[in-house]
Amino acid sequence: MSGINKVILVGHLGKDPEVRHLDGGVTVASFPLATSETYNKDGKRIEQTEWHNIVLWRGLAEVASKYLQKGKLVYIEGKLRTRSFEDREKVKKYVTEVVAENFTILGRRSDFENTPAGSVTPKSENDYLDAPSSVSGIAGDLPF
User: Fold this and answer.
1) DSSP β-bridge partners for residue 78
2) What is the pTM of this model?
């Protein structure tokens, strides 16, 4: 039996997606995503936040660059990937990322009305209907 590698996260973007265009016209976007849990300890409410490195490829990266901004609440499905690289001092480092396969923008319509400067700003309320609330990548669209 083969294993299962599935990640589901609901959280807020820690910053706007960083978009890069690689050789061959491949687009990749990445951003940190914060998820929070609360629990009670000794009668006090404690909030614990985890940060996740999210990576999106090709068409999914293009859509994310248009519609996602810092603070947006999103639902993300993907896979865990760990890669290694050498830093400037030739020390091998490892990073674990969530390679997103699809995402859904969550929140109320009013969340889209106060967009920050430089973000996508629809001309009318009907333009919100054109923005995808859920986006999926094509299975063969991933780089591995």
Assistant:
1) 7, 100
2) 0.75
Nearest CA to 64 among 35, 31, 34? 31
Let me know if 64 is exposed, middle or buried by CB neighbors in 10 A (0-12, 13-18, 19+).
Answer: buried
Can you give the length of the chain in residues? 144
In the DSSP assignment, the letter for residue 23 is G
Which sign, positive or negative, has the C-alpha torsion 23, 141, 134, 35?
Answer: negative
Domain membership of residue 44 (yes or no) is: yes
The closest of 59, 62, 76, 64 to 10, measured between CA atoms, is 76
For residue 126, the enclosing domain spans 7-137
Across residues 31-50, what is the average pLDDT? 95
Question: Within a domain: residue 111?
Answer: yes
- The neighbouring-strand residues paired with 8 are 77
Predicted confidence (pLDDT) per residue in 72-109, tens digit? 999 999 999 999 999 999 999 999 999 999 999 998 76
Number of domains in the chain: 1
